[in-house]
Amino acid sequence: MANKKLLPPGLAYLADNITSKHNILGAARGTGARWAKDLNLPKEAETIFFAGCGYQYASDLESLMSLIRKVDKSAISTELTINLASVPKKLGIDAAGIYSRVMSRGGDTEAQPLRDSVKILRKLGVEFGYLADDEPCCGALLHYIGLHQEFSQHAQEVYDQLKSSGVKQIIGIIPSCTYALRQLITNRDGRSNLEVKHFCQVVAEKLPSLKLQFPRKVKVTYHDPCQLTRYFGLAEEPRRILRAIQNVELVEPDHAKGEWATCCGGGAGFEAVFPELSEILAVNRAKELTDTGAEIIVTQCPGCIMQLKAGLKELDTRGVEVLDLAQIVAMAIEE
């Protein structure tokens, strides 16, 4: 069991956010649910869409990582900055949110994968709800950084909440959240299992019912999120979906794909502890993928999207987009 005092400040900061505010950023409860306010999703349903922290707080997380990387390259230590960040949080001031409003592009375009997922699931005839401001944080980071006692308590609270809400099936979009819900929360200690699937599994199962055509001819490449491929074994499903879209040509590196795909350098708080190394890995992976000649890098993880965008920026590569698979499919759906 990890001693909290021995954790790097970046991880301790994120872990405290989860236990005290029930989201990785430490934002006010319900802030992340704004993306769905006009979608009329019921709160009570046997099947729910689990949005997770990554996309719901994507803009703020990207701003926070940008700040950490700027500090890491400056004379000010990252440890000092993160320790200082805890002071305004204790006073009720949302430091990351303030920085985001100053530095980010504005709006909530980073939540587009969530809205597109809803559009696709509805097109497939799936009946589902969304817990909105009652959606719990999966708390997976607590497990990954060794805070097993804290995670065990958090996992029980999450499980109890889901069961008391009448949830029987969960469709997740973020790999780490979906894995945590399936393997670390509902499949342990003799609990009555909830059925947990990743979004791409649901789409792949119902793919024959979709007629997909992208608005223009385009070359895309696919980046495998580590957990989705190595933990879930979902490597072929997203590729099958991409190959089913007319006007989309899938181009990939010769070897660095599937379970052998190179990591983008993100995940489990690695970016917050080793920002410089994380950025190097992001640059290396972005170059591997753009060397294929692709115009769009497709993946299924907000952390991967953030990392690959940072890598492209460092490479000064222009004209290449990084999108979630849900965004590609949504653009290809014929109305």
List keywords for this structure.
alpha/beta; Rossmann fold; 16 helices; 335 residues; 2 domains; four-stranded parallel beta sheet; three-stranded parallel beta sheet; globular
Verbal overview:
With 335 residues, this protein is an alpha/beta fold. It has two domains: 153 residues, no CATH class; 124 residues, 3-Layer(aba) Sandwich (Rossmann fold), CATH 3.40.50.11810. The protein is 49% helix and 10% strand. The chain has a four-stranded parallel β-sheet with strand order 5-4-6-7, sandwiched between helices. It has a three-stranded parallel β-sheet with strand order 1-2-3. α15 links the parallel β6 and β7. The longest helix is centred in the middle third of the chain and has 17 residues. The radius of gyration is 19 Å and the shape is globular.
